[in-house]
Amino acid sequence: MSQITEQIHASEIGDILENSLHGKRPAIDDCVRLLESDDVFLMGLVAGALTQNQFGKKVSFVNNIILNYTNVCITDCKFCAFYRPPGDNEAYTLTLEQIEARVKTAWDLFKIRQVLIQGGHNPNLGVEYYEDAFRMIRTKFPQVGVHGLSASEIDMIARVEKSSTKEIISRLKDSGLQSVPGAGSEILVDPVKKIISPKKISSDEWLRIMEEAHSTGLPASATMMYGHVESVQDIAEHFNKIATLQEKTKGFMAFIPWSFEPNNTLLQKEGTVNFGAGGMQLLKMIAISRLVYDGLIPHIQSSWLTNGVGMAQLALQYGADDFGGTLIGEEVVSCTGSRSTELTSQRIIDSIRQIGYQVEERDNFYNTVCMH
After folding, report:
1. Which of 23, 161, 221, 365 has the highest count of CB atoms within 10 angstroms of its CB?
2. pTM for this one?
3. Tens-digit pLDDT profile for residues 142-153
4. What is the pLDDT of residue 75?
5. Region of residue 289 (phi > 0: left; psi between -120 and 50: alpha; otherwise: beta)
6. Cβ atoms 17, 5 nearer than 8 A
């Protein structure tokens, strides 16, 4: 340990790391310094120590499917290869029967504990479509948690219904929605949003809808999509905005930084972003996430979806404590052709054990289902 202490003392970010070890989280300026530093290994040592203090050598995952219920979308985000405009030959919307069949198959085959429900901003779907789907899942598959709809999807439903987002959230919760994923935040800085997703809700609207969900009793995840047109200052601001809301509501269960995958997206076609951010950047983002949110947001996910299993294993030693989900049926990232976007639970269990950690299968709320 004395050698590590010497390294910390000698590092340009040593003061920030020492503060972290003494329970003082980095301020926004510290966050910028961390992002600009190349001392990723040292960040990882400290973030890993903080994680082990809290969780020991145990990593969780959830057995889940992603239900991309529609690819019809009028938001035209430049980072998305999944969406289709209304009336397109490849456009689809799942019926209630199709949703039931997919959940039933996943329950019968895999004993899933969560269905993650996300899709496009489809102007033809009213709130009753979602109410019927959630009610059906909770009634017929009571052990399966409903984790669904980004803040921007909730905003779309409110606009279709000419209602408030708060009213929509209340109705969705009453019909069976149990928690809200963090999608739609990208980077919570409007000049960035204007470039990559100009038709999507603003940063303040995303934060407001999340606060409404928390106040209604719906916990959520928070995410960050990095590696496109954002600056270091933008990332620090995003971290800070999530932290500020969490200090107020305590509603975020997990934070998930994930790397933008440019293949087949408009950002790549326009030449704005040609390559993903890569592995070192993932490890830096995971470590900084733990340093920034230690004692504030309990869980940091390893983000295997766009970085692969090997990087996820490393991320678990750089501050992540949760592997994420099996994500069977995922269609959004797979449209970029980046890699296989499904994992079996056994593959996750093996991956965690390979690096010497215990494996906890969890439910939608991070409660233990069983140890493997």
Report:
1. 221
2. 0.92
3. 999 999 999 999
4. 76
5. alpha
6. no
CB-count exposure of residue 29 (10 Å: 0-12, 13-18, 19+): exposed
Among residues 66, 85, 88, 67, the alpha carbon closest in space to that of 76 is found at 85
Mean pLDDT throughout 195-214?
94
- For β-strands 358-362 and 368-371, DSSP reports them as antiparallel
Pick the CATH number of 2-371 from 2.30.40.10, 3.20.20.70, 3.90.480.20, 3.30.499.10: 3.20.20.70
pLDDT tens digit string along 67-100? 999 988 887 666 566 678 888 888 899 999 999 9
Tell me how far apart the alpha carbons of residues 139 and 211 are, in angstroms, rounded to a whole number: 27
- Domain ranges (residues) in the chain: 2-371
Report how far Cα 121 is from the mean position of its chain's Cα atoms. Answer: 18
DSSP state of 143: T
**H-state helical runs in the chain:** 2-10, 14-21, 28-36, 40-55, 96-110, 127-140, 151-161, 165-175, 190-196, 203-215, 232-249, 266-269, 279-293, 304-315, 345-354
Q: How confident is the model at residue 341 (pLDDT cuts 50, 70, 90)?
A: low
Rounded CA separation 116/335 (Å): 18
Question: On the CB side of 307, how many CA atoms lie within 13 Å of its CA?
Answer: 29
Residue 261 pLDDT level (bands cut at 50, 70, 90): confident
Cβ(279)–Cβ(311) below 8 Å: yes
Sheet holding 322-325, edge to edge: 322-325, 58-62, 358-362, 368-371
